[in-house]
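Feature request, filed as a ticket because there's no other form

It would be nice if the structure record came with a short human-readable summary line next to the tokens. Right now we just get the raw output. Example of a typical job, pasted below so the devs can see what we mean:
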Amino acid sequence: MGEGILKDGIAAGRLAENQYVSNFADLHPPFVEHEAFVEADRCYFCYDAPCQTACPTSIDIPLFIREILTDNPLGAARTIFEQNILGGMCARVCPTEQLCEEACVREEAEGKPVKIGMLQRYATDVAMAEGAQFFSRGAETGRHVAIVGAGPAGLACAHRLSMHGHTVTIFDARPKPGGLNEYGIAFYKTIDGFAQREVDYVTAIGGITIETGKALGQDFSLAELAGRYDAVFLGIGLGGVNALRAEGEDAEGVDNAVDFIATLRQASDLGALPIGRRVVVIGGGMTAIDAAVQSKLLGAEEVTMVYRRGREQMGASGFEQDLAAAKGVNIRNWLAPRRVLTAGGKVSGIELGYMRVDGDRLVATGETATIACDQVFKAIGQMLATDGEGVTLIGGKIEVDAEGRTSMPKVWAGGDCATGGDDLTVTAVAEGRDAAESINRYLMG
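Raw output as currently delivered:
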């Protein structure tokens, strides 16, 4: 590590310049053609295809793998994009070990599933590199749909609506489209500006306009959109961050993990990003893992994740937990934050209380532990950053029916902001796609 690693407090330049490049390289280098053929040959092409059933977007996995095996990667890509137009990103970030690959017969038989995610990336990368477009814009219908949020749900919805011939305008509050894919995913999972290349690929179908820097509740209201457009889809994600509810959480050095990840994703010089020497991340989900691992990769000497329940209850997959451990992150369970300790107004440590399960309740044992640190990241979940703008909310999310319709006429919703999802990119894509089909049925009578 660089000479600056022992600096106390939050500081930049903790590593040598070349280490940032290697630390944040592609987590899973893509298959070359021969590797794809060898891996595709491992597939049993099951008749009942449990892998396909486990996929939230229902991609015909045996078919696209067979197409790769017969040297037809473009055909494989078309099979993938028919169900999931953001199949390239999902191949990079989906927890395949909990979805399609967990259901793979080879996983059950020998503990080594077919690498479906890697094969999906191979096919979609070939198609995008060649600029192959498999779907065309439908005959113009004269109908205009507004979409709020240029993330996975909004983009998938827009593409499918354009296939039906509707005109789409997407509004997004951020400077760049992409949503979670652009701002919320670990740097090493999607490198080289892939999120923006995928936005360009999706919108190349035509009939889709994206207006950035336009926020719901500030630049327009939901009622205004519903009045101006034939239908509205909300794919606004969860912009708010839950509070720790611990004493001292406003101290200098306590930051939101989602903001940290977004800043890192947009950084032109990773060496200029400040990070603490000793970092504590509160939470047990994917955001917590991404924040913890990237803190370590930026040069933090000690990184500790703390979660109030056991490892089995953590939102992060077993693979992600193992990745964090392999990168030197210490994961401690059954601990909840009580008090942020400070010295001179800055974080100096965090006091935690031990927890246990009593029946169906999580209760404090009365014992405490203290971890010395100079930076704390909050990654304990997000909440809707709006009061609903007139749609019904349940549990802090927008209530929708099986087709994504909200309580407000002409308004649909999907992705992380809506009920029924599981905060996965692939699920957001499925919900955006299916809402588009519902909107099309509504618009066409």
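Something like this underneath would help us a lot:
The radius of gyration is 23 Å.
The chain has three domains: 3-25+241-382, 33-130, 144-238+384-443.
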